[in-house]
Amino acid sequence: MKNNKKIPMELYIHIPFCVKKCDYCDFLSGPADGERKKAYTEALLAEIRGIPLSERASREIISVFIGGGTPSLIEAADVERILETLRKYFSFSPDAEITIEANPGTLTGEKLEIYRKAGIGRLSLGLQSTEDRLLRTLGRIHTWQDFLESYRKARQAGFENINVDLMCAVPGQTYKDWISSLRTVAELSPEHISAYSLIIEPGTPFAGRKLDLPDEDTEYRMYEDTASVLEEYGYEQYEISNYARKGYACRHNIGYWIGTDYLGIGLGASSLFAGRRFCNTDSMEQYLKYSSVPEKIRKDTVVLTKKEQEEEFMFLGLRMTEGVSEKKFRLRFGIPMEQIYGEVLEKYKNMGFLEKKEDFWRFTRKGIHVSNHILADFLQD
């Protein structure tokens, strides 16, 4: 498809299957047999083919993220079919970033070769910890050795852009455990590391247990020292929970934080398109039945007001260590940032939580630790 205007857009593809749900997970995912996976793949392809031309014309895909669940559980040939269909119906940027998530132990050399052939250039491995006892606590299905084998196979298959997920503040985890995991993974030299704190979500097995969690001071030290440890190995923190070697920041995630339009395809997938937020049904039966007619599976459509778009610009953009640009705010909304947020910006600047560097407002190291509370202040009354 020819694309002249080249308005950037991202795609998220949801694969809702896993071997078993982890004890902390509240994502829309679960086990399924081969027949259900095949039926879902066909429904996913039908949704792609049914996306209206108005949502494809004049758009250029700059990134695709295949997430889950565990996308590496479906047949690699089906992943290839999904990407072939996307390319048939959408115009792709020549250097589009294409990522697939995978759990250690679910990859083979053959799968990885097919991924590479299909144009996937970025692999995201959900490790979480280098300690087998902590992996068991989390309910993970893999071991540290499983991860090392998957990582080795990925390198052999030619992957030169690998992310590794790590989790801190896990039950039974010490400060020493966390720093050891960071250093052990950094010494493998992945291009990207996502390091985030465990959040106990309602409705998960963890929510109903008495957990031996690190205390607040320990969790603070874990987070604060993550940046300095990874900096030793050449990683730069570019977002609250993400670190990358130069040139390897995840473009897809950055798109979320700076407000790039994206379409979510698949069960329960969320979208931001032309000032509207909406999501697909989370009913598998409804999705399988009606996916070929996207308007039948979409729900909860919200047309964002100018005020809501301004708020999102601030509280999503401030996740980036670079911060938010006054110039970009004015260009987008036609009004100076200070006219709306001057009072709250100065308040937290005086408290040492925010700082201004040239055109950008950003969190200080001190401010990052209380960012959730501060971000709430950017919601206008």
Protein model, in words:
- There is one protein chain.
- With 381 residues, this protein is an alpha/beta fold.
- The termini are far apart.
- It is globular.
- The chain has helices at residues 34-50, 76-89, 109-117, 132-138, 144-156, 175-186, 216-232, 251-258, 284-290, 294-297, 306-317, 326-333, 337-350, 365-368, 371-375, and strands at residues 7-15, 59-68, 91-102, 122-128, 162-168, 192-197, 236-239, 242-244, 262-265, 270-273, 276-280, 298-303, 324-325, 354-357, 360-363.
- It is built from 15 helices and 15 strands.
- Helix 6 links the parallel strand 5 (162-168) and strand 6 (192-197).
- The model has no long low-confidence stretch (mean pLDDT 95).
- 40% of the residues lie in helices and 23% in strands.
- The strands form 3 sheets. A 9-stranded mixed sheet has the order 7-8-6-5-4-3-2-1-9, with helices on both faces.
